[in-house]
Write a structure and sequence with these properties.
Layout (H helix, E strand, L loop, with lengths): L6 H8 L10 H26 L7 H28 L5 H30 L3 H24 L9 E5 L6 H17 L3 E5 L38
Parallel strand pairs: 1-2
Length: 230
């Protein structure tokens, strides 16, 4: 087992020795894997150079998530491609690939652990928690404002009927999607749920109403939503 505290070690540890597969379809696949490892090493080096200039703001968080996703995709790619090689060569190669997959799994878990610690260093974890809390409060205030207009009769509305031909979880997803559209188009969501299959008395008999002041769909004009913002 080789050390695995960086992609540099990952490259040199897991690189398939020259001459083990030198011809046929397998050779091209092994070459592609080696290129992926080199690219991953370069990305980590670029990250090290950038972190000195990036603060704990939006750019830092985007970069952290990009690296995390990149590591996961790197693992999925290697796992998939190496499994394909098992169908191309003999038993010895099968054994080598099984061992390599096991080692790569260790590497992936180690790197993900390091990334977690990175996300918590120098106050980044506390910053992320604060940003999430602030964003939550902002969204909650905005929803409260949109869902409780001063004059319901003049408010722009989005009418959503919960009775869809699917299961309970699907219908709750539908409500969330309606909320997202209403939020994005700056409208008050009117949720129609009478004779709902899971609560015939309606949404309000089991959950809090989506509005305290505006539950009437009436307005000066109505029409089917075209999917465009207006």
């Amino acid at each position: 087992m080789c050390p695995f505290n960086s992609f540099t070690h990952l490259y040199f540890c897991c690189r398939i020795p020259d001459g083990s597969i030198d011809q046929g379809p397998a050779a091209g696949r092994v070459h592609a894997l080696e290129e992926q490892l080199i690219k991953a090493k370069e990305q980590m080096e670029n990250y090290k150079q950038q972190t000195g200039d990036v603060g704990f703001g939006k750019d830092h968080e985007i970069l952290r998530r990009r690296i995390e996703n990149g590591v996961k995709e790197f693992w999925f790619f290697l796992q998939s491609e190496l499994k394909k090689l098992k169908n191309l060569e003999g038993n010895e190669l099968h054994k080598h690939i099984d061992e390599l997959l096991s080692d790569l799994g260790d590497h992936e878990r180690s790197i993900m652990t390091d990334l977690f610690y990175l996300s918590q260093t120098d106050g980044a974890g506390a910053w992320r928690e604060k940003e999430a809390k602030d964003l939550t409060e902002l969204v909650q205030r905005r929803i409260t404002y949109l869902q409780n207009p001063k004059d319901c009769s003049k408010a722009k509305k989005l009418v959503c009927n919960i009775n869809k031909g699917c299961g309970y979880g699907c219908q709750l997803h539908h409500v969330v999607y309606c909320f997202m559209i209403a939020y994005g188009t700056e409208r008050t969501l009117i949720l129609e749920s009478q004779n709902w299959r899971y609560a015939t008395g309606g949404w309000e008999t089991v959950f809090r109403p989506v509005s305290e002041t505006c539950t009437d769909r009436s307005g000066s004009t109505t029409g089917h939503w075209s999917g465009m913002y207006h």
